[in-house]
Design goal:
Layout (H helix, E strand, L loop, with lengths): L1 H22 L8 H25 L1 H5 L3 H6 L3 H11 L12 H6 L6 H15 L1 H4 L1 E3 L4 E2 L15 H12 L12 H12 L17 H11 L11 E5 L6 H10 L4 E7 L2 H13 L9 E3 L9 E2 L2 E2 L2 E6 L11 H4 L26 H10 L1 E12 L8 H12 L3 E6 L12 E7 L6 E5 L5 E5 L2 E5 L2 H13 L7 E4 L1 H6 L21 H38 L1
Parallel strand pairs: 1-5, 3-4, 3-8, 4-5, 8-9, 10-12
Antiparallel strand pairs: 1-2, 6-7, 9-11, 10-11, 12-15, 13-14
Helix pairs in contact: 1-2, 1-9, 1-10, 2-5, 7-9, 10-13, 11-12, 11-17
């Protein structure tokens, strides 16, 4: 009950911030996203600081106003308190607190004070909270938000409206909540800003069903809490849904996350997701940049190898501008199956997922695991790069299996998708699941989406992890069988063909054959009549 109450209060705060933006002409504006996410983050960091300070200092916990109690601490005592808090809590000074800004809201140039406060927090916490670009530049936590109001005479009032909303309630009681709470809040926070954008880099939100299936197959329940000191990587991370699910299955304090994504917007969303999910220690490994052209994470001169990789890469995208830069001797091992050619009339249909998939295979540690969303066409293509990748996985015995998902599992794309599971340690049987008939179709806006029930999700997970055969649903095959099927990874091609035998009398058989004969005669008759009619029409046309 408490969880639902705070979830509603948190959503109400998000709605009220969106309402303020709309009142100042920023509804559906490109900058609204930055204002909403950054003010939410400021509130979160402020209240997290309070939560940690009260845990460590009883005098602060018992004070009527914790901000005043903190203000009375000496500079040395405040620094000592912050050192005890740990690295996942932002370093704040009394002048950074929301209550301090609230008390100063009638001061002249309040918008400047508001912006200066956010920028000072960003600079003070740059080492831990800044996202890097592949060129080495740092993307700090906050922007000067009032600058997004075109009319500077309205900026003070805009910032006052925000502070008045932020001061109304505290997040402190949500810090004891579990992963699912934050996943729900994060999805609500970004739901208006994380659209498909025409299929561009990782801008769409991966459905929870897909994320959960990927996480619980890579990290089965018995292994959860047993794994430690592992690396988790996503080369097209988007807002981080897949990463959060895998990290939660492993244990947030048992893994380090590494990411790269070309989108600055996605990288900022991912940073927010990491902060919400107690994974601040991984923010320095969040890189904004082109993974294929400039892969950032390395061990010395070689690309870094990872224990777990998850990815929902873009499927088709125009990368013709830098295609030839990838086609070099230095990249021959990484792109072992080849690089898609530029399509003369449809450059936006270049199969970029093939490059991400090869990059993932190359980046996998010895004994590592990967789960990748691919277009279902990948699992059966009989030529080209797709087949060469499948052959590589089979020949190197590093395939765990495939789950073919229902159509429209993503509301924003009609492409049928499958989840490819790679396991460099699996030298035995491979699981192929056809889950295409599961789920219920629902409308989501203008789009139709297929939603799996929790029981259907669990069925997929249990069947895969147990390597269980179920009629018309799953098969378990050896690598030699896959070779015999021309490297097809479609479960349906391995299902037994059923032939039904029916006992009938000679008289019944003769009657059936007579029926077929009569049908054929009728069809031939219709065909002759049609032929005569066409000839007559042609003769008529000739004499006109």
């Amino acid at each position: 009950m408490v969880e639902q109450e705070f979830q509603q209060k948190t959503k109400a705060l998000i709605d009220s911030l969106k309402s303020i933006c709309a009142n100042y002409g920023l509804g559906n504006d490109g900058n609204e996203f930055k204002i909403i996410t950054q003010t939410f983050l400021y509130k979160f960091l402020n209240d997290k600081f309070a939560f940690e300070a009260k845990k460590l200092d009883q005098a602060i916990a018992n004070a009527d106003k914790w901000e005043e109690a903190l203000t009375q601490l000496s500079e040395d005592d405040l620094e000592m308190l912050q050192m005890r808090m740990g690295p996942d809590t932002a370093r704040l000074k009394p002048r950074h607190f929301i209550n301090y800004l609230f008390s100063q809201q009638n001061a002249p140039d309040f918008a400047k004070l508001f912006d200066d406060t956010l920028m000072d927090i960003a600079i003070s916490n740059n080492d831990v909270f800044a996202v890097k670009t592949d060129g080495g530049a740092k993307v700090v936590l906050f922007d000067r938000l009032s600058n997004y109001i075109a009319d500077d005479s309205k900026r003070d009032n805009f910032c006052r409206a925000i502070i008045n909303k932020l001061v109304e309630f505290s997040f402190e009681r949500i810090f004891t909540q579990k992963f699912d709470f934050y996943a729900t809040i994060f999805e609500y926070l970004i739901k208006d800003y994380n659209s498909n954008s025409g299929g561009k880099y990782a801008e769409y939100f991966t459905p929870h069903a897909v994320a959960r299936i990927m996480a619980e197959i890579q990290v089965p329940k018995p292994q959860q809490g047993q794994i430690k000191n592992v690396s988790v990587y996503d080369p097209s991370a988007g807002s981080g849904t897949l990463l959060m699910n895998v990290a939660h299955a492993i244990g947030e304090n048992r893994c380090s996350i590494y990411t790269q994504d070309i989108s600055q917007k996605s990288s900022n969303l991912l940073r927010l997701n990491l902060i919400l999910n107690n994974l601040v220690h991984s923010i320095p490994q969040v890189i904004q940049g082109n993974t294929l052209l400039h892969p950032y994470h390395k061990d010395g001169s070689e690309l870094k190898r990872f224990d777990y990789i998850v990815s929902n890469p873009p499927f088709k995208l125009d990368f013709s501008d830098y295609r030839d830069e990838l086609d070099t001797k230095a990249n021959q091992q990484r792109f072992f199956a080849g690089i898609p050619k530029v399509k003369a009339k449809a450059t936006d249909k270049m199969e970029i997922y093939q490059l991400f998939l090869q990059h993932i295979i190359y980046s996998l540690n010895t004994g590592g695991k990967a789960a990748v969303v691919v277009p279902t066409g990948f699992i059966t293509a009989q030529a080209g790069i797709d087949k060469a990748i499948r052959r590589h996985l089979v020949e190197h015995q590093m395939l765990a299996g495939v789950v073919s998902m229902p159509s429209n599992i993503f509301a924003t794309t009609g492409t049928n998708v499958s989840i490819l599971f790679i396991d460099a340690g699996n030298k035995d049987k491979v699981v192929l699941i056809d889950a295409s008939n599961l789920g219920q179709k629902v409308k989501e806006g203008k789009n139709q989406k297929t939603v799996l029930s929790p029981e259907e999700e669990q069925r997929i997970i249990d069947v895969f992890n147990a390597k269980r055969v179920e009629e018309d649903f799953s098969v378990v095959v050896g690598y030699d069988e896959i070779v015999a099927k021309n490297y097809s990874l479609s479960a349906g091609q391995y299902f037994d063909v059923k032939i039904e035998y029916v006992d009938i009398t000679p008289e019944e058989f003769a009657a059936k054959m007579q029926g077929f004969s009569d049908n054929l005669e009728s069809l031939f008759g219709q065909s002759r009549e049609l032929e005569v009619e066409i000839k007559n029409q042609l003769v008529g046309l000739k004499y006109e």
